[in-house]
Amino acid sequence: MPDDARARRQAGTGLGIILALVCAAVLLTALPDDREGGGTCAARTVRSWSADTRLTGEFARYGDDATRMDDWTGGDGTHSVRLPDGRMLWLFSDTYLGPVHAPPNPVGESFAWRDTSAPLVRNSAVVMSASGRLESTLPTPVFPDPGPQQWRWPVAARVEPRSPGSSDQVVRVLLWTRTTGQAPWIYGVPTATEVATLSLPDLRLEGIRTILDQRSVADASQRVLYGTSAVDAGEWTYVFGGDDLQAASRPASQAYVARVPRGRLGEPGAWEYWDGKQWAVRARAKPVLGDGQRRGVGSAFTVVRDGGTYVLFTMAAGTEGLTTITSYWACSPTGPWQGPTRSFSPSLPEGEVAAYNPQAHPALSGDGRLVLSYDVNWLDATGASAQANLSRNVSLYRPRFVTLRLGSGS
């Protein structure tokens, strides 16, 4: 064989090897992986779901019990955290207290009811025994108002060491601070993300620290509050949040994510925010999901980790968002998020009501099951007629629960 032909063949062989290596590298790079926590990532969607009547019934039992006059009879913003002694702490935003009366109600309907003058507080916490029975309501409000025309709504919570390396544990509760505003801010203007510390085992409030103050952001629809969900993976706790694009008449809000070294939620300087390219301590965060139209999240959503896959549940965009829960999945908290995938519509009571705030409860999940709650309210939840309707039928303002099973698919 002539030297020049041999050289051409050798060069072609070398080029083929290089191309093969490049292709292999591309394929390996394209394979989904959980970059934060280790594990295999695969597309996930809701395979099946069913109503969890036991949990729903337990909250109905506790809410209807008139033994005490200062305990929980209904609330929304349902979050939970397992305590070291096996108890569960349930956290709620706006909460009704006071007695509940057996049916019939004043208009002759077969619904348990409360007086329209029943106390309404901005937040509450209910303790469930290790056996799953709701037992007591902490003195309310658990988290006092930070100032005039302001209030605090509790969201995700974690049990952490009091300080890094300490054997003494406390509960850290993420809080949303909101301020009274004019329309369209009928649920308040987003103001700040805070973290409260509760002692263990007595659950006494020890203090509250501001994590991210948003008052300097002029456009309130662009303010981000963190804590609607938190996921532990590897050395980090990933804390998800959202903006208020929906209040500004956009079909869907946008999701954001921050991260904190595990066990340090209460340290503002330990928080890092995703700026679209990297994690930074002081950065203008960029959304990881949402186009302001058909893809995005509701005002509150939840994220779980299934193997190496992150799965996000939210109310669907548009009018379906009044009744329908949908999901997205990703191999990293920062995305890219795929979906929306298969949706489902949980049961709702009769009347002009809406579902909102789907929240996962991992401490109650297992064996391939995921427990998810959703809140129910009157469709027009701001007027005097709404309060009358919620009082006429107390079941309209309590969490309901479903059990999901996830499967492969997109």
UniProtKB/TrEMBL annotation:
Residue stretches making up the DUF4185 domain: 228-368
Q: Where are the transmembrane segments?
A: 12-31
Write down the species.
Streptomyces sp. R21
Q: Which UniProt keywords apply?
A: Membrane, Transmembrane, Transmembrane helix
Q: What is this protein called?
A: DUF4185 domain-containing protein
Any keyword Transmembrane? Answer: yes
